[in-house]
Structures are given as structure tokens and as C-alpha cells.
Specification:
The structure holds two protein chains of two kinds. Chain A is α/β, with parallel strands linked by helices. Chain A contains ten helices and nine strands. Chain A is globular and about 50 Å long. The N terminus of chain A is likely disordered. Chain B is of the alpha/beta class. Helix content of chain B is about 40%, strand content about 20%. In chain B, strand 6, helix 8 and strand 7 form a beta-alpha-beta unit. In chain B, helix 1 packs parallel to helix 8, helix 4 runs parallel beside helix 6 and helix 9 crosses helix 13. Chain B is globular, with a radius of gyration of 19 Å. The chains are: A alpha/beta, B alpha/beta.
């Protein structure tokens, strides 16, 4: 595969110029703690809503969001409309619990709101709403549209000569939507290098394995053929994710796609990698066990 | 004088581009037809060619709008509203983003291309969307001003234009305002409401009916949403009968909007000049208009029919 040098996580911090130094280890430890806290928020949020929720696809993208919101992106939670901020679009809008967990942890809104997820009158709708929730940049939910919106944001930033970058998280099942590939062509055609897409490659969609519902592989070659720089990482390894995000920042004249290999339902032992975890309810026992493993009894 | 509404759009975009640096334009490989090509030549850095990919174009327009740009995204009416409907719903109308959806070749004006290219449901689709303003101008002057008004308006707008040259009916001093219907001639017996470029046919019909002794109050209704309720109700209270005229299905467009208003507030006998739940077909515009009664003669017949139903002869008030 072309660009093979980019296809493996490399635990080297360019700023340090050597193997991971102690400062990096502290930062990675912090990201792991943030990820654990986000998982607890996600479980509590969905469980408290009293309805079936999208545990699987929320838990698979936790480290990706943690790296973006707590290390990589340039943003100010106290000033969500800061014009020079980097933007994040959750194209796979059903992972809203993961985004809400990151935004609450980052301080965009008080934690208490998490208990109102999906309730009538809540600022936390079942899918992201850009006007109700501070920090949400685009209303999503109908799949296949976030990449187009992110491209529009990146074009606007370029017109205004701002240095802001735009990040968009896509689901792998979502790539069935033709509009994703329209946007992929357009972003490469317009040479938008301030756009980084991340694919939550958890291998499952509602009906089962992506490869059974609609064959996606070779997915890296597809994006390369569309004119994108492609990185491949372990989507649960913060060091690898950060390395790829920094690598994407250096790419010129084309957009970047980071294919993050993940496990759907990561952190829910009984449901990890199971089709059923796409949208489900947890028994009290399952909930308590998972919360206990995440460091809270 | 004849001029197409799409030509008026192309010229209006040029003026807007010079005045307002926030205005950007997108098209889906039809800029020479929609006339957005003139903006593309003048302001290439603010023009984005999106290829034959309408879904992505309207999503990109939403992203641009979310960052403070005022995108005008144009293509044929059938592709704008039908191909990209869910993008318009999810990414533009639902978050009420400031995107201007401008379509050319509305109604039968894609004449020779046939039913695949003629949309008669676009206005209905757009009118159903919360937050969407819907404008169907009658001529080039109304179009030019509607483009400027759309840029000033904060929120999504659907502006439906045609392909062909049509009479210029408004004078340069005319001032378009969103939501404002325009009285064209006063009358006593029947209210005729027109959206779009059939206004010239309706004027001819009104003159012919006048000679028969039927006094028509003719009103141009360029904004279908929000509807000018006061103007329409005021006229209908006076005449007691109404005919709507549009190059659109009788389901969902001006006729439906007016029927919804009158049913709730002032029910009167009503007739609809429009397309009766049919797709289009190839032919000249004149042939297609004649087939569906979208002519001065067809309007006259509907006026006489509605007056017969109302009874009481002429003049109610």
C-alpha cells in the first residue's frame, strides 16, 4: 500500500526527538484517565436515559475524541464561538454520548446536563444539535453528511486565511452512503489540507459485520485512490492517534484520513465486538460490572 | 421586454459579490445554465465547483454558512430539491443555516428535456421544511431584488427560477420584501393569486375577463412562505372567491398554502390552476402550458367556474 510509512503507529514524539519522554508519558496517562472518565459518563448517560442507546459506537471512539479534545485541537471551552478555533464534526451522530462526554469533561457545559441525555427539554438531544449544545459545531444524525459540512468549514477557514483545522469523525458503516464519496472527491479536488477525517473502523454496523452488509475493504486503498493521505492507527492507543494527527497537520495540498482500528463497545466486556451493542440496554449487573472495571464502584 | 429570471440571478450575484465579501457561490456543473458562471468568472476565489454531486454541494454550503459565509448554491430545481432533499433537511433547514438554495429550470421550463428534468413538486417539498423561506419570483426585476433580500435574510431560503425569457412586469422602482404580496390590479369579483412567471398570463386573463364584466383582483405572491396572510385574507374577504395560479403541482404549492390559510380563517369557493398530480413530458413550454391549462384561457375558465360555484353573480362586497 502506498504511504506505508504512515500506516503504523510510531511512538516517537517529534517534539522530543527521541523515544517517549516522561512528559509524554504523563500526557498519555492523562489521556487514558480522560478516556476512562468519558466511558463512565457514556455508560451513566445512556443507562440513566432509560432507553436503548448507542453504547457500541460511542465507546469505540473514546480515545479518538480524548486525543482531539484534551491534547490536539486548538479550542477554548469557555469561548465556544472563538473564530480561530479548530472545528470538530461528529458525522456519526449516533455517537453523541461520546461527544457529550468529551464536551462536559472539557468544560463546555456543566456535568449535570449528562443526566438529561435524550430527555424532553434537554440540551443533549439524541443526536448532536449545534444550537442547543455548546461545543457542537454541526447538527448531525442522518449519516453521510458530516464530511461535506467539514469540507465547507475548511473552505471557509481557507478563504478567511485562518489557521484553523477541521476534524471529522466518520463511522465505517456510514461509508455506505454515496454522499461520503462525493465529499471525498471534492475535498481532494479542492486540495483542502486543513481537513482531517478519522474513520472509527470498528468493523460493525447495525446488521452485523461491515464486510457482510456492504464490503468496505480495501478501505485505505479507496481513500488513497480518491486522493487522500491515509494513516492507519490503533484507535485505542493515544500515542498512535496523536502521532497520526500530527502527521496529518504536515500534509500539504490534500486532505488526510486516519483509519483508526477500534473495538465496538470497548470497555463493556460482555458486549465488546458484538453486533448487539450498536444500540442496546444494559442490565443493572452489566452496568455495575462495567462501571467497576472503569474505576468506579 | 423579455428576460429570464436566471439571467437576472446571474446579474444580481455579480452586484452582490461586489458589495458583500461574505457571499460565496457553489454550483453542480450547471453554472453556465444557472448563470452562476458570471460570478465564477468575476470572483473565482469565492466560487466552488462541486461537480455533479448535489448532496455534497448542499452539505458543503451548510459548512460554509456555519462559518459566517452566505452561500448561494444553484443547480436545476429538480436536482436541488429532490436529489439533495435530506441534506437540505438535515444540514440546512434543521440547523437553520444561512444557505440560499437557488434553482433554475423550475416547472416546465426544462421543456424539451422531459419529465425527468421538470419538477412540479419542488415548492411543496421546500415549503414543508421548518425554517425555510420560499420565493418564486414573477419576473427579472422581482428576481434581482429577491436575490438581494435573500442575502440580507438570516436563514435558509429557496429561490425558484425558470429557464426561459418572460415579460418584465415590474418597474425598476419596485421594492421586493420577503413575505409581501403585491397587488397588480384591483377588482371586486374574484381574487387571483399568482406565484411565478405565469403572472403575465394572469394579467392577460384579467384583461379579457374585464371585457366580460368580471372584475379580477390580481395579486402577485412571490413569497409562498411566509405567506402574506393579511393581504390575501383582505382581498378574499372582499371578493368571496379565489383562484391560485402556479407552474407547480396543485399539491403542496401556492394553492395548498392558500387553501390552508382560507380553510382556517375564511373558507370561500376556490379553484386551482396548476398541474393535477402528474409528471411532465417533452414538448415546448407553450404545448405543456396548454396541456395543463397554465394559460390566460385556462385561468379564465377557472375564474368563471369558481364564480359559478360561489353564486350570486358578480360583486360580493
Amino acid at each position: 500500500m502506498p504511504g506505508a510509512s504512515n500506516l503504523a503507529p510510531v511512538p516517537v514524539d517529534r517534539a522530543c526527538g527521541k523515544r517517549l519522554c516522561s512528559r509524554d508519558m504523563d500526557q498519555l496517562e492523562e489521556l487514558r484517565n480522560r478516556a476512562a472518565a468519558m466511558r463512565r459518563h457514556i455508560l451513566r448517560m445512556i443507562h440513566a436515559s432509560g432507553t436503548a442507546g448507542h453504547y457500541g459506537g460511542s465507546l469505540s471512539c473514546v480515545e479518538i475524541l480524548a486525543c482531539l479534545f484534551f491534547r490536539h485541537m486548538n479550542h477554548e471551552p469557555g469561548n465556544p464561538r472563538w473564530p480561530d478555533r479548530d472545528r470538530f464534526v461528529l458525522s456519526k451522530g449516533h455517537a453523541a454520548p461520546a461527544l457529550y462526554a468529551a464536551l462536559a469533561e472539557a468544560g463546555y457545559f456543566p456535568m449535570e446536563h449528562l443526566d438529561t441525555f435524550k430527555r424532553f427539554g434537554s440540551i443533549l438531544q439524541g443526536h448532536p444539535d449545534m444550537h442547543l449544545t455548546p461545543g457542537v459545531e454541526m447538527s448531525t444524525g442522518s449519516l453521510g453528511q458530516g464530511l461535506s459540512a467539514a469540507l465547507g468549514m475548511a473552505l471557509a477557514m481557507r478563504l478567511d486565511a485562518r489557521g484553523s483545522r477541521v476534524y471529522v469523525l466518520l463511522g465505517d458503516g456510514e461509508l455506505d452512503e454515496g454522499s461520503v464519496w462525493e465529499a471525498a472527491m471534492a475535498a481532494a479536488h479542492h486540495r483542502v489540507h486543513s481537513l482531517t477525517a478519522i474513520l472509527d473502523r470498528n468493523l460493525l454496523q447495525v446488521s452485523g459485520p461491515t464486510e457482510a452488509s456492504m464490503r468496505l475493504e480495501p478501505v485505505a486503498a479507496k481513500w488513497q485512490a480518491f486522493g487522500w493521505e491515509v494513516f492507519a492507527v490503533d484507535g485505542h492507543d493515544p500515542a498512535g492517534i496523536l502521532e497520526a494527527l500530527r502527521g496529518a497537520n504536515e500534509v500539504r495540498d490534500k486532505p488526510s484520513m486516519i483509519i483508526a482500528r477500534t473495538v465496538k463497545g470497548k470497555g463493556l466486556p460482555a458486549l465488546e465486538g458484538q453486533t448487539a451493542c450498536h444500540s442496546c440496554t444494559l442490565t443493572e449487573a452489566q452496568f455495575s460490572e462495567a462501571m467497576g472495571r472503569l474505576g468506579e464502584c | 421586454m423579455l428576460k429570464s429570471t436566471r439571467d437576472a440571478y446571474g446579474e444580481a450575484l455579480l452586484r452582490l459579490g461586489a458589495m458583500n465579501p461574505r457571499v460565496v457561490v457553489l454550483d453542480a456543473d450547471l453554472s453556465s445554465s444557472t448563470r452562476s458562471s458570471r460570478f465564477a468568472a468575476q470572483f473565482p476565489e469565492r466560487y466552488f465547483e462541486m461537480g455533479i454531486a448535489e448532496q455534497n454541494m448542499y452539505g458543503v454550503a451548510a459548512g460554509l454558512a456555519s462559518c459566517g459565509k452566505i452561500p448561494f448554491a444553484s443547480t436545476f430545481a429538480v436536482f436541488a430539491t429532490e436529489r439533495a432533499l435530506n441534506q437540505i433537511r438535515q444540514s440546512i433547514a434543521y440547523p437553520s443555516l444561512n444557505v440560499k438554495i437557488v434553482s433554475s429550470h423550475g416547472g416546465f421550463t426544462a421543456s424539451g428535456d422531459g419529465g425527468s428534468h421538470q419538477t412540479l413538486i419542488d415548492v411543496g417539498l421546500m415549503r414543508c421544511l421548518p425554517n425555510m423561506t420560499v420565493i418564486v419570483p414573477a419576473d427579472a426585476v422581482q428576481t434581482e431584488q429577491a436575490v438581494a433580500a435573500a442575502a440580507e435574510h438570516q436563514g435558509p431560503v429557496y429561490l425558484r427560477l425558470g429557464k426561459s425569457e418572460v415579460p418584465v412586469l415590474f418597474e425598476a422602482g419596485y421594492s421586493f420584501r420577503i413575505g409581501e404580496a403585491v397587488p397588480m390590479r384591483p377588482g371586486r369579483d374574484v381574487t387571483v393569486l399568482v406565484a411565478g412567471t405565469l403572472l403575465g398570463q394572469a394579467l392577460s386573463a384579467a384583461e379579457a375577463l374585464e371585457r366580460e364584466g368580471i372584475s379580477v383582483e390580481l395579486i402577485s405572491v412571490p413569497t409562498l412562505k411566509p405567506l402574506d396572510r393579511e393581504r390575501i385574507l383582505g382581498s378574499v374577504r372582499k371578493t368571496g372567491a379565489v383562484v391560485t395560479v402556479e407552474e407547480h403541482s396543485v399539491i403542496g404549492g401556492l394553492g395548498s398554502a392558500v387553501a390552508e390559510l382560507l380553510a382556517a380563517h375564511h373558507p370561500v369557493p376556490m379553484a386551482f390552476v396548476g398541474v393535477n398530480d402528474l409528471f411532465g413530458e417533452s414538448g415546448s413550454e407553450q404545448e405543456l402550458y396548454a396541456r395543463h391549462g397554465l394559460t390566460a384561457r385556462g385561468i379564465g375558465e377557472k375564474v368563471r367556474a369558481v364564480l359559478n360555484r360561489r353564486g350570486g353573480g358578480r360583486g360580493r362586497g
